[in-house]
Amino acid sequence: MRRILIALSLALSLAVVPGPARASDYMDMDLCLGKQVLGRILCKDPREINFVAKVRDNVYLFSVFYAKQMARFLVGISNDKIRVQGREFLKLTRTIPYEFDETSKCAVVEYSSSECNYSEPIVCCSEKTEEDKLDDKFWDRPIPELLEEDLRKALEVLPPEEGQPAQGQQQQGRETSPPAAQ
Predict the structure, then answer these.
(1) Distance CA 135, CA 156 (A)
(2) N or C: which end of the chain has fewer CB within 10 A?
(3) Any bridge partners for residue 101, and if so which?
(4) Mind listing the pLDDT tens digit for each residue in 101-136?
C-alpha cells in the first residue's frame, strides 16, 4: 500500500512538472492557491489548512482535519491547472483550471463545490517586490508634482546659456552676471 502511495505521489509530481509554470516564481501565491482551493473542495475554512512542506517545484503538501482524522493532500500548480490529490483519500482527486494575470501577479480560480456554499472566485496575489512598491509610490503622487520634479531634473542637467542668469540668480534691471573669465 505504501509503495502505491509513493508511486501515485511521483506520478502526480511528474504530471504537474512539465512546462514552465507561470506562478512558479511566486511561492507565496502558490501556497495561497493551495489553501484556498483545498478549503473550497473540502468546504473548510482555509485557516484550518496547514502548509506542511514543499515536495518539489510546484508541488506542496498540506494537512487538515478531515473525516474524523488528520489528512494530507498534495497540491500541484502547473501552467494553467491546479491538481489536488488526497494521500489518504485517493478518490479525492481534482484538476481545476485557473487564470494568471502577469501584470498584477494574481491568479483567479472559478471553482465551486455543490457541498459548499462558497461560489465567489478565489483570488490570490503575490506580494509586491520592492520595485513594484516604488512604482506604486511614484504613480500615487499628483501629476503636477510629477511634472515639477521632471522640470527640476531637466534644469539641473542643462548648462546655463550665455546672457541668461545662472540657476538661482535673478536678472534685475540692467544688472547681469559678470562675464566669464577667459
Answers:
(1) 23
(2) C
(3) 106
(4) 888 888 999 998 887 888 889 999 888 666 766 666
